[in-house]
Amino acid sequence: MALFNTPSSSLLQAQNFFTSPKKISPLLITVSCSKSPSQPTSSPSPVDDNSENQEPKRRLSKQSSWEAKDSEGKDYLYRLGKEADNMNIAVGARAGVVDSLFAGNFLGKDSDIVFDYRQKVTRSFEYLQGDYYVAPLFLDKVVCHIVKNYLAHLLNVKVPLILGIWGGKGQGKSFQTELIFQTMGVEPVIMSAGELESERAGEPGKLIRERYRTASQVVQNQGKMSCLMINDIDAGLGRFGNTQMTVNNQIVVGTLMNLSDNPTRVSIGQDWRESDITNRVPIIVTGNDLSTIYAPLIRDGRMDKFFWQPNREDIVNIVHRMYEKDGISRDEVVSIVNRFPNQALDFYGALRSRTYDRSISKWVDDIGGIENLGKQLLRRKKDEKLPVFTPPEQTLEALLESGYSLIREQQLIMETKLSKEYMKNIDD
To answer: Which member of 68, 114, 124, 376 has the lowest number of beta carbons within 10 Å of its beta carbon?
Structure first.
């Protein structure tokens, strides 16, 4: 009992330092850490003799971000520990912003602890090089949806947060949307249907909220337009026949419905604060059949639907722009489209890719055959260059030959159903 009732002066000073933050005055910044022996003291110290060997308390740096207060009077460390997940991706070891203890030379004077994370989440489309054609109807719908959501606070109408672009396979829904993002300078956060399921319940719904908040922070911190895009949403949320419905499917649907109803209040598990307001960013989803998705999610107040089926003029313009650099005229493109009707846009891209097969086989022979392929591609020296690959000369005859080859493969898949041969006891 005596140990607790009679604390020593050194323990008392330690308690006062941690329990009385008001005693650390900002004026201590200008006070020297050492005391000159020639300067007289006004009054003797009330502590014992051991205090003479103790160094005075000082702050870690002249500018400490850990003691900065928010609007509620809470410092950074308090808020960081209070929140379940810290979504402040702008925190980095930047010199002059955080204490020098955490921005040493071993990290670099201007290190960013989340650079890789930020680069992986957002997409900037530098790889899209060249001149492409975007259908005017598709362009108008996507641009109108993005602009309406950024002006939602000024419009006296109900603006749906989600745009559902659906249609046949391979019609360029995702690619044309990315072309529009590149033209508008939008830096989106893109997800796929494979991220809508997890072995842990609730993880995909939380991921959607985190990605939505990340897109909001792109608007706030970088001054760029952003949005959340989910590709092939019906592959992750659609109900096909006897497809099993999981808890994660229900949570993802509920998360998207909640985002549509409350786009500026997004929780990721932390305590609510009045200052925690998320910027509204639009959501764009693509799919092949939206009728397989939970009906309340796709209702008109939450999702604006757009069925995309390019007409013949759109297909000719898109394919002609694709073949233009190969010297294929518009009349030749029209003849190709007429020869292979009722084909998706990706068919004509695969048709051009098939013409490269012979040139690639010749290039493999030039580098020493398939035996030396791995050595030439992966284990060559840094100053050693690969043999020059000569692209094939595109002609109408070569493109038609590749098209007939693709058509034969399609027919074989539809006609030769080996599953019926292997499992004859399975009904159709």
So the answer is: 68
171 within 8 A of 287, measured Cβ to Cβ: no
Section 220-224 average pLDDT? 88
pLDDT in tens, 380-401: 777 777 778 888 888 899 999 9
Cα separations in angstroms, 255 against 204, 206, 251, 260:
9, 8, 6, 9
* 53 class by beta-carbon count within 10 Å (0-12 exposed, 13-18 middle, 19+ buried): exposed
pLDDT, one tens digit per residue, over 179-200 is 999 999 999 999 999 899 988 9
Other Cβ atoms less than 10 A from the Cβ of 59: the count is 14
Contacts of residue 367, defined as CB under 8 A and 6 or more positions apart, other chains included, come to 373, 376, 386, 387
Question: How many alpha carbons fall within 13 Å on the CB side of residue 227?
Answer: 26
Which pTM value belongs to this model? 0.69
